[in-house]
Amino acid sequence: MGCSAVFFDLDGTLVDSAQDLTIALKNTFKVLGLKPHSELKIRQWVGNGVDKLLHRALTNDMQGEAEKEKFELARAIFHEAYINQIGLSCKIFKGVLLTLKTLKNKNLKLACITNKDRTYTEILLAEKNLTKYFDVVICGDDVEKKKPHAMPLISAAEKLQVDLDSCIMVGDSKSDVLAANAARIPVVCVSYGYAQSVDLLALQIECYVDDLSKVDFENIHQKHQQVA
After folding, report:
1. Which CATH number does 18-83 carry?
2. Does the annotation count 9 as an active-site position?
3. Catalytic residue among 9, 11, 16, 20
4. What is the pLDDT of residues 92-117, one digit of tens each?
5. Cβ distance 123 to 87 under 8 Å?
6. What class is the 5-15+91-227 domain?
């Protein structure tokens, strides 16, 4: 069985959205009367959805959980701030457009699988003119369990009407790797994303690159099938 579909994470894989998130968080903290965090720190917290990001920012702790009332207030303020900021300071990573165009020309099906809420995802994809490349978009609020669970990947394969075994995952974080491992499909990791200080090379991955346009997806899938 050959490769029929490629799944892409969004933040840190296709686009560098950290600056948008930083500006929205700084505006949120300003309203709350709190000291804002640096973009460097916020980059370490990105990758598990807005709720996780806010809990981490409010507690200044990767594993932190803010008080319910404080979190809900921050969530409401952040929503407005981020809606007005999405895509304005966001950049598409090198090699991404060429990769998407090449895969589409090969008639491979593409899915964007993100832990981001659909409201934010659709705006971001539209702002960066990326919507047209994806046959399916699976967001954090579309499924019962987000990455690192395999559920979003299984859902994408079902919606694309392809065998999960014929798919490849592309991401920048441990959550992407674990989701792919749980789904038993190969995973390509990019070096430039939001790895949250995790050594991705120490995980079970097929490829680690700084430019997606250099990846031979069909070859990676074939090698994974041989090992499996």
Report:
1. 1.10.150.240
2. yes
3. 9
4. 999 999 999 999 999 999 999 999 99
5. yes
6. alpha beta
